[in-house]
Sequence to fold (779 residues):
Amino acid sequence: MSAAIQASGLGKRYRRTWALRDCTLAVPEGRVVGLVGPNGAGKTTLLRLAAGMLAPTCGTITVLGERPAAGPAQLARVGFVAQDTPVYARMTVSEHLRLGGWLNPGWDNGLAQQRIAKLGLDPKQRAGSLSGGQRAQLALTLALAKRPALLILDEPVASLDPLARREFLRGLMEAVAEHGLSVVLSSHLVADLERVCDYLVVLVASRVRVAGEVSALLASHHRLSGPRRDPGTRHPAGQEVITESHTDKQSNLLVRTNEPILDPAWTVKPVSLEDLVLAYMSRTGDDTPTRQQQLGVVS
Amino acid sequence: MIRLSLLQFRVHAITALAAMAAFAILLAATGPHLASLYAASGISGCQPASCEHLASNFLQQLYAAGTYWVLYLLGVMLILVTPAVIGLFWGAPLIARELETGTSALAWTQSVTRTRWLTVKLTVGGLAAMAVTEGLSLMQAWWAAPIGRAVGHGGGGNYLAMGQFSSLVFATHGIAPLGYAAFGFVLGVTAGALIRRAVPAMAVTLAIFAVIQIATPLWIRPNLFPALRTVVAVTSLGSISLQQGGLDGSDFTLGAEALPGQPGAWLLSSGAVNAAGQPVRTTPAACTTPSVRNGPGFFPCLARHGIREAISYQPASRYWPFQWAETALYLALAVALAGCCFVRLNRRRT
Amino acid sequence: MIEFQLDETSGVATYLQLVQQVHQALRMGMLEPGERLPTAQQVVADLAINPNTVHKAYRELEREGLVRARPGLGTFVTRSPSGTDPATQARFLAELTGWLRSARAAGLDPDDVEAIYRTAFRACFAEGVA
Fold:
């Protein structure tokens, strides 16, 4: 399967700060990719680079095999919904659809009209007076009706209430089921991503911490709890400790390994996606796991 | 993309058409009366000797009436200000508003490149700007035609009597307004593209436009073509400005306001010179006696001492070359600025 | 037709939940051989989940031999899971319901019941450690 987004050493700098650094990814097509990370991690930068709204400072990025925004053909294959789902406040809903039709040769007007009708949007209403959820749905309709191969969404549900959020994701998943498009969406809410994503990228402090298929990630990460092990203890090769915390009697670890865990002292439990993401997000530095000392343990 | 540009332009278009309609009504209400006043003045078909007198009377009549002078000025101001208004309200927000509201993320991720997007937007806005400004200019020219003809016959004596090369008249007639309109609009778009916020871009557009529009008649226009120089007898001068100063009128400056034999010429500079062609400011001793210097014999006295008037000027026949040259200059400037916009837009640094 | 539910707090992978619900429905007689499972589109419209998850669940069920995908027509149940028939299932359901009623009458709250159940379940089926 070819890559929806391929980045190599991708970096973006604004004046002095690096918003994104050393980003190397190969996100496969036909997936719903979740891009998670705290605010300011570089998610918007990465997505805008992929959508062709920004040019890299260093490194390369190709989207569906071409440079982003390389020409009208490439632009037609990628749909983008930016943060806060911008729309033209003074234009009506139906005028936005006309915009889509005029600017996109691949525009599917039937699909657009159907979606608008199903969502209950008034075509004559000005986009500026729509609610947040309605605006997000309008923006999604515009992006879907141009029939892209890849849809990029930057925190599309961040400012929506839970019902609107669910409706948005429902509409998105229905579109994926119907048209088989690839989706990359960013969020800092992990719970939503668990339902819809089958590929995950965790971005923290402008770097990629972990990337892979959700099922593979969940299969290779485990929570270990057992009697206290000193923080310095060596672990078997092939086992990488992501986070660990110790009390005077107990140790809890989150490890990544593809080998079976043979030490009988450990109780092994599966890891939820949220735990996994939080673990990677709380890691400081490049490779050092955080050590949380609880209850004032003296080593 | 064209249809989208027109859709997004409709509010501007309606405003412009409303303004033009209001102006047209104003002119249509008063134009025919002005024309009838001109017909009654007897200037058309006048004898060469009496033309100047009749023309001046006519202009005096208009000036005294008040409304015509006000309307004339209003029209002139409107035409001068329109390119700036267009630059501020059509040009500056074009890119800046898209960036401020974030709709650029919508506009530039459809299947249209930024280059095409901007090309169409600049073309639609630019053509509209030129049409509106030139439209106003043509309406004004139709209405003020009698005034122009009166001035052409040598009428003078009040502010209505502005020659075709005078700053206000040159800038509001002919094709110069096209150049200003294109420039003003593209200046606004460029400011918006570089500053990325609409209100500061509007301020910068206004400032730069004002500076350039003041600098052009002062320093650029006079040098578009090399001036012609001639020396004429001081006694042949018609309207002049004479200043005598110093002890007993020992200094004088003589300025010519019209060039004999060259009606409608644009006088750039003039001054008295001696027989050798050098500038002269000292009154010859013989001409300083009060009876001479205050009487009609002053100029013959100067002439007897070999003093003549040197004038640098642009002939009236160069009016249209000047219009073309200045318009071309402004259009070239507009194109250069547009180039900056394209470069900035495609740079995608932020 | 079976209607799927999703328990986000259970910690069980979504596709597994779908598989388990089909198993459950087959055992309880709510799904019978020859019936069609909902299409991925229908499940997605209900639950707002990734359609690949549905495909994965249906593939797993097909691997277990419980369903068969017919291109263009849908996914159909082929047989029940081997072992008990719906009658046996109904008998144990009645017994357990009786037991639960008496436990409740005796004053046990749901947490007590759950703890008792899990202890007995583990002892009986010996949950494995990886």
Summary: The helical segments of chain C are 14-28, 40-47, 51-63, 86-105, 110-125. Chain C has two domains: 14-77, 86-125. Chain C has a mean pLDDT of 86. Residues 14-77 of chain C form a domain with the Arc Repressor Mutant, subunit A fold (CATH 1.10.10.10).
